[in-house]
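Q: What would this chain look like folded?
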Amino acid sequence: MGKKTVKRALKGASILFFLVLSLVALGQVVYPDRISRFAGEDVESKLCFSLKTEAEEEDGAEKGRILAFGILPVKEVRVESFERMDLIPGGELFGIRMEIDGLLVSGTGPVEGTEKSPATEAGIQPGDRLLRVDGVALRGAASFTKLLAKCGGSAMTVTLERNGRETDVTLTPVRDPAGVWRAGLWVREAAAGIGTVTFIDPRTGSFAGLGHGICDAESGALLPLRGGSVCKVKPEGAKRGTPAQPGEVRGTLTDETIGELRANTPTGIYGTAKDAQSRADGEAVPVALKDEVKPGKVTILCQIDESGKKAYDARIEEICDPNSQTKNFVIRVTDPELLEKTGGIIQGMSGSPILQNGKLIGAVTHVMVRSPEEGYGIFLENMLKSDGMRESAPKAA
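A: My prediction, written as structure tokens:
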């Protein structure tokens, strides 16, 4: 080996040494790694020399970068995270009254007494959201009925939203045997029901419940929220569930408003409670990340009658889909008292908080119809990452 070759090798080794030394000094020790996914986004699998996240606050979430030295190009991604916090577990029943933004189409069909379906012919589908007619915003079903009567059978331009996109269709009403102009569709303008509070944030008064969104029963579409409130419920006992026949918590919605509804999302409903501190029953507990949740014993907090919320024994049977939005683990009720009263999980228990090892880990979301003692739960981390958390936080004056 010649002198020039030796000098060149020594020089290269020196540069590499100082580069590694600099990275170590900055706390960026380099390890080879193969990355297939990062922050929920696909990343081409390649050998990387370094992976770190540079974070900066942006709209309540962190914005990160993959920094790869030499091979993987810089790629900006969203890093979903939330601050460690203590929350007050819920378990209380509450009533929901929500107004839909626009009109949600539940179904279409022939106008009674005719063979025509103007909505079907216009291409309107279940799950579409009707926004405007001839440029006039729809504020409830009554406003749509008035516009139908006013048109006198002339073609109407209906602006609707489908899969996040607005489009215009032409609808020509027909008369029913009574002489009333009809469109041949069924719409939903509001919704009401009973659910369970999952948690209240004592710092902000924000609350969350259900652990899943409120959807149209016919089309399955998430109901778009225009406004709404939550109220107290007068419990009237529970109907026990049996295989193939889910039970339900029975109760009457009262006129006592206890909060404002701000968001209806796939992971639950969110809002702001009035006088949250006095309404919350219990002390704040730590929140568990999803990788802390394990199969084994848990406690469910829920209310099924006028005696108030109680703690019941249950088990997590398995972590079935940690990447799903809502059905993350299978839970089985083991408490004899709850099994005797309800048969397991029943409608109205959605949102019931689940605790494990003193931490709030998630909420009950679904019942398995063929086996009512079993159901699904959502990780609390998924509920906290929802946009509903930011939307429901009180705005600064």
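The chain has a mean pLDDT of 77.
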